[in-house]
């Protein structure tokens, strides 16, 4: 092969260098794969951002960063209750409350000023104690309460429409200057009743339980009322069931709250029968039915009629907690028709109560692989060809 002259050799070398330069520049100017916008395909889950990486700078710093990434913050309803208490005693319309973890405890700050703290895992009792101490710090004398008797502790909680009417009357009395310990305690009890009847399935309605917690702490700080039943029910509403059962054990026997929290079903069922859907016993009994098993719930609920359970808001709301079909079918135990749907007969007059699909006939069913069509299967049954066994091909041999 003849050797190339120097000039063509130089041109070939320059061409190769230019091609390598173009390839390298194209790779450098191309965007990184992670920088490109990723659009998920239809039906695929959305991409979630990753947690920041924990850099190992010694074992103590790594442990602190690891615990910080998995540490749960205090209950948001506790912080909102502090803001409500500041509004009631301080007069500010909106108060920012922050929680900062420092040296094994949560430091609470109101408008940047430290006002106390909570343990690393605060309970309902810790939050209530802090609210009562904060009420004493702000000064309960600002409320200018007039002397007067407290409402009787054995009085039942207002339920249903009575809850809203009680709150409206107490609010009008408070705005007109009729401020007494009975008014404050009554407002706390009515707000706890409202929080008890609230069906917050999405866990987004924090205003009512937070205000109930603030009023409960304020009522205990300004009066000598123990409000044990209200504390137990509110602790249950907020999800602190262990604290609720501990408080319920100190209640006198025979009450609806104690029977509900300690699962004394026979006592609560008898109270609901006497209550006739007008008070807290009916509401708590429906809530208790929602926590039972399906068989036990059907047996217990069949003993009560629709008139005994009532149709008040405080009874209808907890029916949303029941899993299954129509609420009337769930804990009345039998299929009924509402008065505006017709007579209380079978489910044929109540099409909305029939949740099972109609079974297709033999002519509508598709034959299995290797099996004759339904018509030939019915004709191939030997012996008696009349009756339901012949229509579906069951009860004989295949010919």
TrEMBL record:
<feature type="signal peptide">
    <location>
        <begin position="1"/>
        <end position="30"/>
    </location>
</feature>
<protein>
    <submittedName>
        <fullName>Uncharacterized protein</fullName>
    </submittedName>
</protein>
<keyword id="KW-0732">Signal</keyword>
<feature type="compositionally biased region" description="Low complexity">
    <location>
        <begin position="341"/>
        <end position="368"/>
    </location>
</feature>
<feature type="region of interest" description="Disordered">
    <location>
        <begin position="341"/>
        <end position="399"/>
    </location>
</feature>
């Amino acid at each position: 092969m003849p050797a190339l002259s120097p000039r063509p050799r130089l041109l070939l070398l320059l061409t190769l260098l230019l091609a390598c330069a173009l390839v390298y520049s194209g790779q450098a100017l191309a965007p990184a794969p992670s920088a490109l916008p990723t659009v998920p395909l239809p039906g695929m889950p959305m991409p979630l951002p990753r947690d920041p990486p924990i850099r190992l700078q010694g074992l103590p710093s790594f442990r602190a960063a690891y615990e910080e990434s998995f540490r749960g913050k205090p209950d948001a309803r506790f912080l909102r209750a502090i803001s409500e208490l500041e509004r009631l005693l301080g007069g500010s319309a909106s108060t920012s409350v922050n929680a900062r973890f420092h040296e094994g405890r949560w430091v609470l700050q109101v408008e940047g000023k430290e006002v106390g703290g909570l343990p690393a895992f605060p309970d309902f009792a810790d939050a209530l104690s802090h609210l009562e101490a904060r009420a004493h710090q702000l000064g309960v004398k600002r409320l200018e309460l007039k002397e007067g008797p407290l409402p009787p502790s054995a009085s039942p909680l207002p339920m249903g429409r009575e809850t809203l009417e009680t709150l409206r009357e107490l609010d009008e009395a408070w705005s007109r200057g009729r401020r007494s310990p009975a008014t404050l305690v009554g407002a706390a009890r009515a707000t706890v009743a409202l929080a008890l009847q609230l069906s917050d399935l999405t866990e987004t309605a924090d205003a009512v339980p937070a205000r109930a917690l603030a009023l409960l702490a304020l009522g205990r700080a300004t009066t000598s009322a123990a409000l044990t039943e209200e504390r137990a029910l509110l602790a249950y509403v907020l999800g602190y069931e262990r604290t609720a059962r501990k408080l319920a054990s100190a209640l006198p026997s025979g009450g609806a709250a104690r029977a509900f929290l300690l699962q004394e079903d026979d006592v609560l069922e008898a109270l609901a029968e006497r209550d006739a859907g007008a008070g807290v016993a009916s509401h708590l009994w429906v809530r208790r039915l929602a926590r039972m098993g399906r068989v036990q719930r059907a047996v217990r609920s069949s003993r009560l009629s629709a008139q005994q359970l009532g149709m008040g808001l405080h009874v209808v709301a907890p029916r949303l907690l029941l899993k299954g079909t129509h609420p009337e079918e769930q804990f009345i135990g039998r299929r009924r028709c509402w008065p505006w749907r017709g007579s209380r007969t079978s489910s044929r007059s109540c099409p909305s109560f029939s949740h099972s699909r109609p079974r297709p006939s033999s002519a509508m069913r598709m034959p299995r692989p290797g099996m004759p069509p339904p018509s030939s299967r019915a004709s191939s049954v030997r012996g008696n060809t009349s009756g339901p066994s012949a229509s579906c091909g069951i009860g004989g041999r295949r010919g």
